[in-house]
Specification:
about 240 residues; alpha/beta; disordered N terminus; about 50% helix; six-stranded mixed sheet; elongated
């Protein structure tokens, strides 16, 4: 099915459909015990991949089967999907704060922007708030903060302009962070990072006896990269990558 890259990491051949190859391999492996597929855990990049693999399993099976657990780790809302993988909690584990509702976070940022920029209309503030949410999510996925961004002030004509804009942005971020902390909430991206890190630790301290496979995940986001590294080191772990 696959071409070995290194121990526990494989890639499908050029032109091969990853979902089809993975489903064919697993169905063949569990042909005499299709119920055993229910013990397999598959980590996939997004919900679209989950749908594609589900369809591939239907095509691969010539009789009924119980699907493996499939989790889209690109989804910022991982609670329900990771729950069975993280329970029961040990006394040494703490539950991350809940994620702030998207609309509540957006409206708070709109209010902060209008407070900071009195001349901004509601429409302008909403547009800026949406852009800020996207930027913050991208930074948090990469485990960075706005303070990690360095500005180039070589152009003296732009230095003052960029400095003021950057100071305003940092202020908005600090206000947003304080608001979340006061309400004991996390951003969706920060909470996903916490859940993925806890899952990595769980796999390390209590390795599962059933197969754990990460398939088609190519992101270099730190929390996901660490999880993939842990999966690749499991006795029944496998990281399956598309051919590049």
């Amino acid at each position: 099915m696959a071409e070995a890259v290194r121990a526990k990491v494989q890639t499908v051949s050029v032109g091969t459909d990853l979902s089809g190859a993975l489903s064919d391999w697993l169905v063949e492996r569990y042909r005499d015990d299709l119920l055993g597929l229910a013990d397999v855990t598959l980590f996939l990049p997004n919900n679209r991949a989950v749908s594609a693999l589900t369809s591939a399993f239907v095509r691969s099976a010539d009789k009924g089967l119980v699907l493996p657990r499939m989790v889209a780790i690109g989804d910022l809302a991982l609670d329900e999907k990771l729950g069975p993988l993280l329970d029961p909690f040990s006394q040494d584990e703490t539950t991350p704060f809940p994620a702030v509702p998207d609309i509540e976070r957006l409206l708070k940022l709109v209010a902060l922007i209008r407070q900071e920029r009195g001349d901004a209309s509601a429409a302008e503030a909403l547009h800026l708030a949406k852009q800020l949410v996207q930027t913050l999510n991208e930074l948090e996925v990469e485990e960075k903060s706005i303070h990690d961004i360095e500005l180039d002030h070589d152009d003296a004509d732009l230095a003052d302009h960029w400095s003021k804009a950057y100071d305003s942005l940092k202020l908005l971020c600090r206000q947003s962070e304080s608001w979340l902390a006061e309400r004991y909430l996390l951003s969706p991206a920060a909470r996903r990072n916490a859940l993925l890190d806890r899952l990595k630790q769980r796999l390390k301290t209590t390795p599962p006896t059933a197969p754990v496979i990460a398939a088609g995940i190519t992101t270099a986001a730190p929390a996901i990269a660490k999880l993939l590294s842990q999966i690749a080191g499991l006795s029944q772990g496998l990281v399956l990558l598309p051919h590049v």
